[in-house]
Amino acid sequence: MGDFAEIVDSNNFDIVGVTETWFNDDVNSADVSLPGFKLIRNDRVGRGGGVCVFVREHYKIKVIDMDFESESPVECLWIQLSIRKLSIVIGVVYRPPNRRKRKSKFSSFVNDVDLMLNYVCPMADCVFCIGDVNVNLLNSSNPLSECFSSYGFDQIIQEPTRVTLTSSTLLDPIFVKCPANFMGVSGVKNMCHISDHRLAFCECYVPGSKRVQKFITYRDFDDFDCEAFLSDLRSERWHSFTREPNINKKVQIFNDILLSVYDRYAPVRRRRISKPRATWLTERLRGLMRKRDRAFATFRRSGSADDWNEYKRMRNGTLAEIRRSKKSYLLAASSDGNEAVWKALKSLNVAKVNARAIPDCLKDAESISDFFSAFNGVAGDDACTDKISYYNSNSNRTEPSFHFKIASLEQIRTIMTGIRTKAVGDDDVTLDMLVHAFPVIESYVQHLVNSCIVAGVFPVQWKCAIGIPLPKTVEPTSCSDLRIISILPLLSKVLEKVLSDQISEYVNDFNLLPSYQSGFRRNHTLLLSPFLNMGVTSALRQVEGKREVSNDRVNNRERGYERDSAHSFKSLAEKPSGPGEELTSRAERCASTTEGVKLIISAISEELYGPIGLGRLVDPLVKEEAKQSASTLADSSGPVDG
Questions:
Q1: Which of 243, 470, 580, 627 is deepest in the core (most CB within 10 A)?
Q2: Beta strand residue intervals within 65-211, DSSP E
Q3: Does residue 123 lie in a domain region?
Q4: At CA 443, angle to CA 442 and CA 449, rounded to 5?
């Protein structure tokens, strides 16, 4: 033990897992203990094997009972400890090698691991699984790695842990499930004087301060009286709102009236969140858990075999009921779509959560605001003036000029019905609040929207957004690695939708957009655009003249992409407005290779928009040859500058 103790001491390890201890009843724990460490053992019944864990004395630990009917001769030991209120579970697993007398199926071992992970994952913030699995994991495509990956684990050891003259294998993995910013250095160390296996290790940075308590603010609708609420809302002094000429003050009065009534019937509460609510945990399950705990307490007092068997019966029955409840929960979520399924999996702690943390150096709100304000997408006042002048001087339209119209009450109702977001803007008005109050406030919302349209003013309050920075990379280092989610007040979306619908209606009624424009248009995609009818024939002529495509040159790597490309061109030609059967066969031949597809795309771009390609079409100040090309194509569909 001297050499082993020296390795532990020199590396300052806090927790050490050991496999193949060969401990038995004749070995006293005091004889094999390390100074300053607790020893937890799980010996094999018989010769060899066994696992154990050494944990520093100042940690409070709890041994997790893993008494289940194993399909393989797996040996394991799982412990749970809390470090500054962070719950950590560590497991040491040993799978004996295949022998004539003890031949075990690898699939059975994977099934046993799946049972363990299903049990321990929901009970901890971080889970580590270490040990010797006697399977080479250098190839990550194997059933064991896939099993751990399905629970959100990462295997962090990337070097061989057993090296011989004829082989290099990774037999001693470390599977980790915890936030990325908790993990430090990991790797292997040589200890050939003790074992022919190399020592796998990792560092975990536990936050130095106490866990920050989480609080949520919400409106309490438990005792909400809807009829009394609507009655009080009707009796408010709405005339002060309707008579106010200033739009910004009008919005403020509306919010004040609505929030003041809600404060009386659904007051704001602040509550501390200790842990996520387990939706699958029913009252029946809670009762079974209490009975199981009482049975265990009875066994601890008596120590009798009958009480132990009763506890095991209660424990196994409760575990089976928990699994059935989780399964039913997932099946119910599956009927609501993929989003609900993934949300349910994450709530069960079996799906990997991409928690990308923002470093402290990027948490300054002013710096983020200054950075994104510098890229507002406007090239400058001169550029805007030039574009407006261009459109005014090239306008040959005969349709009437556009003016915004007041919105009907039916339009307001339709728009409100279509809002799905649960986000709360800077005005603290939620969608549920608007829905409950809408029978009373619908006419006032219409009045507010129409007042904005008549005055030509977008309220200042509705321009204020809550910006939430989200990292675009795993380790963001600058503001360019962030993207901002802007949450605007819900009523601002109503006004935006009213204006957007009127603009779209005007543009569509007078056919102001070129027929070949597909971007930013509803029910228009590149595959349905008429520009293909104009350019595909000419493009194929160019491609066929440059080369003859041979199917013999299609390699295996390109087969999938080329098959999809040929199918897309075939679908285009088969449409009623497409070029016909002859073009179908020609497109299939030319699109049978990646190079053929690239030539087709290049030829279409050059045929329709000149040598500058597709990307410059949207700018009205493009080169003269682009305007000539576009005007030629638009003769049958209206002016391009519209």
A1: 627
A2: 75-83, 86-94, 126-132, 154-155, 162-163, 168-169, 174-177, 183-189, 199-204
A3: yes
A4: 90
- Indicate whether 599 and 576 sit together in one domain: yes
Q: What is the mean pLDDT of residues 226-241?
A: 93
**What's the DSSP call for residue 197?**
B
Is 443 in the same domain as 313? no
User: Closest Cα partner for 79 from 33, 116, 50?
Assistant: 116
Q: Give the pair of three-digit tokens for residue 323.
A: 């699994």
CA 57 to centroid of chain Cα atoms:
39
- CA 246 to chain centroid, in Å, comes to 43
- Measured between alpha carbons, how far apart are the two ends of the chain, in Å? 85
Beta carbons within 10 angstroms of residue 83's beta carbon? 16
Do 251 and 288 lie in a common domain?
no
Number of CB atoms found within 10 A of residue 336's CB: 11
Angle at 49 between CA 47 and CA 52, to 5 degrees: 130
What is the distance between the alpha carbons of residues 19 and 21, in angstroms, rounded to a whole number?
Answer: 5
Q: What is the mean pLDDT of residues 69-86?
A: 80
**Residue 521 forms part of a structural domain:** no
Element spanning 83, H or E? strand 75-83
Q: What is the pLDDT of residues 19-68, one digit of tens each?
A: 988 888 888 887 788 877 889 988 888 888 889 999 988 888 889 887 66
pLDDT at 521: 72
Instruction: Give the chain's domain count.
Output: 5
Residues 192 and 55 in one domain: yes
Which of 90-94, 205-209, 452-456, 588-592 is the least confident region? 588-592
Residue at 388: amino acid letter: I
- Would you place residue 560 in the very low, low, confident or very high pLDDT band (cuts 50, 70, 90)? very low
Task: Give dist(CA 591, CA 543) in Å, integer.
Answer: 10
**Mean pLDDT of all residues belonging to the chain:** 76
In terms of domains, do 60 and 199 share one? yes
Q: Are 113 and 60 in contact (CB under 8 A)?
A: no
Contact status, residue 536 vs residue 572, Cβ threshold 8 Å = yes
Beta strand pairing call for 61-64 and 86-94: unpaired
pTM of the model: 0.50
Q: Which residues contact 475 (CB under 8 A, 6 or more apart)?
A: none
Structure tokens at 267: 């007051």
Sign of CA dihedral 431, 432, 438, 444: negative
Claim to verify: residue 33 and residue 143 sit in the same structural domain: yes
Under a CB-based contact definition with an 8 Å cutoff, are residues 467 and 485 in contact? yes
| Complete DSSP assignment for 5-21 | HHHHHHHT-SEEEEE--
**Which stretches of 181-329 are assigned E, i.e. beta strand?**
183-189, 199-204, 214-219, 268-273
